[in-house]
């Protein structure tokens, strides 16, 4: 009898345990992009740590490809194959029903200034803030060209280009259609954005309310200046054939004297093994016509798709990476030279060039970045990519006045669409 009872008890235990043994892991898809800093190994470190601490939840990368991350996600959305967790989701955030509402318990771990509402719903999870943008320059080439100090005015910047070219150097470099954001990003944020906000302190709101359009003098003046630098032959002739990574590599090898870019370049140099770059690259703030000392930061966001079948687990992953595990969050921040946006800041030691970059903005005032502002006054979905493509047309010689007419037309079409 005792033997039969033991068998029955053992059978009951095994049957109770069977569902757990047979249960399959939950798999979440995570849309990411790779760069020189955000490598496959970088992401795997995050995935391995999370999966170790959260048995039963697996993370599967979906690599965003093509020249535009927003366009990649739009294509996935149209195909009904939206990844569960998205990095850089802001272009779709104003479309109702694309992303799930974020629990207040998760948003409470971030600085309130970074929390935004789209269509009355909070669907974006703050990830970090990025410092944008400065001019990285080759100190050795500046010295050989007889340039003392760094340009503090637009006129001095032009003179520096002239001296560099006369000394046989290529003054500037950028990237082309392979990464559509990269062609104009550095110049737009470094100069154009500052000039527009100097004249129109509430530009995004005024634009949304129809009080102003794109046909404004600060925009035309800045774009005309940029095209003048291009027409003068100051940009590397291969710029429009380069991807962003290729252009960066050319610059860091000394094949151009200046490249306008974000703080992540400083992190790349400080943490890399390019001794030439470590010895020769410095940075300064791009001068603007208004003479104002302003700068931008871009909050990066994540989002969980409304179609995600396991939202609680997806939000758990977001909370874990974005501050829940400070070591992993520090790993995420340090890789690209970006900064904590949590209420309890997570810090890391700055490298030499990154410290120089931050010091350059001392005494400067933060203003919104027109193309990255979120919430009620965000640009219409798709308009940022439109600007990038238009700027590429300007780079190869398109008439600026005609392009601005197209900006106004496209803005209204997307706004009303």
Task: Break the fold down into its secondary structure elements and pairings.
Layout: H1 2-22, E1 26-32, H2 40-53, E2 57-63, H3 69-78, E3 85-87, H4 104-107, E4 125-132, E5 134-138, H5 139-144, H6 154-166, H7 185-199, H8 203-208, H9 217-231, H10 244-252, E6 258-261, H11 264-271, H12 275-280, E7 281-284, E8 294-304, H13 311-324, H14 326-336, H15 352-360, E9 365-366, H16 383-395, H17 400-416
Helix pairs in contact: 2-14, 7-9, 11-15, 13-14, 16-17
Question: In words, what does this structure look like?
Answer:
The chain is α/β, with parallel strands linked by helices. The protein is 46% helix and 12% strand. The chain contains 17 helices and nine strands. The chain has helices spanning 2-22, 40-53, 69-78, 104-107, 139-144, 154-166, 185-199, 203-208, 217-231, 244-252, 264-271, 275-280, 311-324, 326-336, 352-360, 383-395, 400-416; strands at residues 26-32, 57-63, 85-87, 125-132, 134-138, 258-261, 281-284, 294-304, 365-366. The strands form two sheets. Strands 1, 2, 3, 4, 8 and 9 form a six-stranded mixed beta sheet that branches. The longest helix is centred in the first third of the chain and has 21 residues, at 2-22. The model is unreliable at 1-22 (pLDDT under 50).
């Amino acid at each position: 009898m005792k033997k039969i009872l033991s068998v029955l008890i053992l059978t009951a235990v095994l049957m109770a345990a069977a569902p757990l043994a047979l249960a399959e892991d939950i798999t979440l898809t995570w849309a990411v992009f790779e760069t020189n800093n955000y490598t496959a190994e970088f992401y795997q470190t995050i995935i391995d740590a999370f999966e170790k601490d959260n048995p039963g939840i697996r993370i599967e990368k979906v690599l965003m490809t093509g020249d535009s991350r927003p366009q990649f996600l739009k294509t996935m959305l149209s195909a009904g194959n939206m990844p569960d967790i998205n990095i850089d989701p802001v272009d779709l955030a104003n479309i109702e029903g694309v992303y799930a509402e974020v629990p207040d318990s998760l948003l409470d771990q971030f600085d309130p200034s970074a929390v935004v509402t789209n269509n009355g719903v909070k669907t974006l999870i703050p990830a970090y803030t990025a410092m944008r943008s400065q001019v990285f320059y080759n100190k050795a080439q500046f010295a050989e060209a007889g340039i003392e100090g760094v340009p503090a005015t637009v006129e001095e910047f032009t003179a520096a280009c002239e001296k560099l070219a006369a000394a046989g150097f290529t003054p500037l470099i950028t990237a082309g259609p392979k990464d559509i954001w990269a062609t104009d990003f550095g110049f737009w944020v470094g100069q154009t954005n500052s000039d527009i906000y100097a004249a129109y302190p509430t530009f995004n709101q005024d634009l949304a309310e129809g009080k102003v359009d794109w046909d404004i003098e600060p925009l035309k003046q800045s774009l005309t200046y940029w095209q003048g630098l291009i027409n003068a032959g100051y940009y590397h002739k291969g710029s429009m054939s380069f991807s962003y990574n290729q252009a960066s590599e050319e610059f860091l090898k000394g094949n151009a004297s200046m490249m306008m870019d974000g703080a992540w370049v400083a992190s790349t140099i400080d943490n890399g093994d390019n001794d030439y770059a470590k010895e020769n690259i410095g940075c300064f703030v791009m001068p603007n016509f208004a003479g104002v000392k302003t700068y931008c930061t871009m909050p990066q966001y994540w989002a969980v798709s409304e179609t995600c079948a396991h939202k609680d687990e997806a939000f758990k992953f977001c909370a874990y990476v974005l501050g829940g595990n400070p070591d992993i969050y520090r790993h995420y921040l340090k890789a690209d030279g970006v900064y904590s946006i949590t209420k309890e800041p997570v810090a890391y030691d700055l490298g030499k060039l990154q410290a120089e970059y931050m010091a350059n903005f001392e005494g400067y005032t933060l203003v919104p970045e027109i193309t990255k502002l979120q919430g009620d006054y965000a640009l219409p979905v798709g308009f940022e990519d439109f600007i990038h493509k238009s700027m590429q047309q300007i780079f190869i010689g398109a008439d600026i006045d005609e392009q601005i007419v197209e900006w106004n037309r496209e803005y209204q079409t997307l706004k009303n669409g």
